[in-house]
Write a structure and sequence with these properties.
2 helices; two-stranded parallel sheet; alpha+beta; two-stranded antiparallel ribbon
Length: 119
């Protein structure tokens, strides 16, 4: 029985293979400039490997919308400059509040000019 050994090669032009020992360090280097962007005082950004969490607060939903969209635009601009793209289909929004007043319960946050799904 004869076996054919086929060698497949592919040039890697960017990124780092998932599971690689270099992955955490490369992610830190890559995200460092994003984490150093000037965000508003009501915003906090947390990165874990290839996931990103943007937290913003406000007195009203309209203020949260405004803050989140401002920060989202900063992140999109950073991504474009670094030849990167955030996936708006995988990105979600969540509104958390302790207030009982009557106010709309949906946030309208856009990423790459697309409305993000609220969970």
């Amino acid at each position: 029985m004869e076996t054919n050994n086929i060698n497949l090669e592919r040039a890697v032009s960017k990124g780092c293979p998932q599971g690689s020992c270099l992955r955490p360090g490369m992610s830190n280097i890559f995200y460092n400039s994003l984490l150093k962007l000037k965000f508003t005082s009501s915003t906090k950004i947390i990165a874990f490997d290839d996931d990103l969490l943007l937290l913003t607060r406000g007195e009203a939903v309209s203020e949260i919308d405004s803050n989140a969209n401002l920060e989202s635009t900063k992140m999109s601009n950073w991504a474009r400059k670094n030849k990167f793209r955030f996936n708006e289909k995988k990105s979600k929004t969540m509104l958390m509040t302790r207030r009982k007043r009557k106010e709309r319960g949906e946030v309208e946050v856009y990423l790459n000019n697309k409305l993000l799904q609220q969970i």
